[in-house]
Amino acid sequence: MKITEKKCDEFIEILASKSPAPGGGGASALVAAIGVALGNMVGSLTIGKKKYIEVEKEIVALKIKSNRLQNELLELVDLDAAVFEPLSKAYGLPKETVEDKQAKSVIMEEALKNASSVPLEIMRKSCEAILIQAEFAAKGSAIALSDAGVGVIFCKAALQGASLNVYINTEAMQDRAYAENINNETDGMVEQYCKLADETFEYVLNRIREK
C-alpha cells in the first residue's frame, strides 16, 4: 500500500515511529499538496460567481494547474520514501576493509544523489504552488481569502522543509561540484519564493484586517 493511501492517523503514527520513511521530505510534499488544495478550494468557491466573472477563465486555468500539482506532490510523498531506502541501507554497509570502504563510497554517492533529487523536485513544485497561491489570493473569492493565506504558508513550509533534506544530502557528497550546483538552485528557490510567500501572506492578512 502506498503511504498516501493510508489513513491520516496511520500516516502520523508511521511518521512518529522509528521507520526511516516517510520523513521530512515526504511530510513536506504532503504539506505542499494540502497547501495547493486550499488554494484550489478558493478557486472552487470563485467559479460561477457573477462578481468574479471577469477572472473566471484565469481561475479555471489555475485550478487545472492545482489539480496537476496536487497529484504530482502526492506521488512525491511515496517517491521520497522509495529513494531514501537505498541511502538508509547504504549507511549500514560494512567498512572494515579498503575494498569495503571503496564500495560503500560509490554506493553512498549514488544514493545521496538520488535521495536529494526528490526533495529538490518537491521544492520546484512548491515554488510553482506559491505562484498559484498568490494569484488565488489576488483574484479569488474574498470569502475564502484566509484559505489562500494558509495555503501559501503551507507551501512555504514545504519549500523550506524540503530544502533541509537537500542540504543534508549534498553536505555528505564527495562530488562537490555536483553538490554546489544543487545547493545554488536550492538557495535561489528559498530566497525568491519564501519572499513571495511572505508577501502573499501579508497581503491576505492586511486585506482581512482592513475589513
How would you explain this protein's 3D organization?
The chain is mostly helical and 211 residues long. The protein has a single domain (24-210), classed as Up-down Bundle (Four Helix Bundle (Hemerythrin (Met), subunit A)). The protein contains six helices and no strands. It has helices at 8-15, 24-46, 56-91, 98-139, 145-170, 176-210. α2 (24-46) runs antiparallel to α3 (56-91), α2 packs parallel to α4 and α2 runs antiparallel to α5 (145-170). The radius of gyration is 20 Å and the shape is elongated. The model has no long low-confidence stretch (mean pLDDT 93).
**CATH level 1 class label:** Mainly Alpha
**Shape, per Cα inertia axes:** elongated
Low-confidence stretches: none
* Beta-strand proportion: under 5%
Span from first to last CA?
A: 47 Å
The total of helices stands at 6
Element-by-element helix/strand order: HHHHHH
Major sheet: none
The number of domains = 1
CATH architecture label: Up-down Bundle
Provide the CATH topology: Four Helix Bundle (Hemerythrin (Met), subunit A)
Describe the oligomeric state of these chains in a short phrase: single chain
What is the typical, i.e. mean, pLDDT? 93
CATH H level, superfamily name: Formiminotetrahydrofolate cyclodeaminase monomer, up-and-down helical bundle
How many individual β-strands?
0
- Alpha-beta classification: mainly alpha
Which radius of gyration do the C-alpha atoms yield?
A: 20 Å
Helix content percent band:
over 70%
